[in-house]
Design goal:
Helix content: 55-70%
Number of helices: 9
Order of helices and strands: HHHHHHHHH
Shape: elongated
Structural class: mainly alpha
Radius of gyration: 27 Å
Number of domains: 1
Amino acid sequence: MPPEPDDSVKPAADAPARLPQHPLPPPDFTPPIAEYKREMARLHGFQAYFWGVATFLEDHEEELVRCLQERSDDPLEPEDYDPEFHESLLNEWVLCRVVDNFEVYLTELLRFLLTYRPEMLSSSDEKVELTFVVGNMDRLTEALADRKVRELSYRSLASLSDYCQKNWAFPLLTGSYASDQAEEIVALRNLLVHARGVVNPYFLEQVGFSQYALGQRVEVSYELLTEAISNINQLVEDIDRRAAVKFWKPPLNG
């Protein structure tokens, strides 16, 4: 028989006290947002570099003109060495990269959540099929998550938001100003990439009311770019904060 417990045995005075076991609070963000912010910082650094160089070259215009002329087969026009003339193209490029970064963030967030919470994956015959191919539950979860993310990546932002709402009660777009503007920003990026920024009927159909007229070429001003970046950043922060709270689960030993 086991010995009777000895109530006279007390823990040493310097023994560490046992901390009460409370579930940890949900994190403030998910891992994918770190990569999003890192890329945004890289884009910001490039903008700063461009304008720093442009400012420096203002005092070295003759050298700049000579350098450009050596690399051009045609005579230079004044706008060829005017940084403000090239600003719109720079802004277009940055806007496209910002939207690319946003879409990659959404893809990485969905992949992270589906892997972290595999119960979000719907059951289907695909699981049985892939089990024989993969043969490992962790790899199976990753394979199913990748397949679902690829499937969802073809949806528009609004359609993806509707899917998340219907299946996980987690809409990406919440009706805020940033959410409303995000769809137009994505449509504008697509217009720049696929139509050289010339407004077409499809763009107007996507965004509804627009300040741009059919056939007009969109000029991406610094103000437009700044507002677009602000709206996308606000939307990412909102999505990530809600995702961290909704899908977080305490550790099993917590």
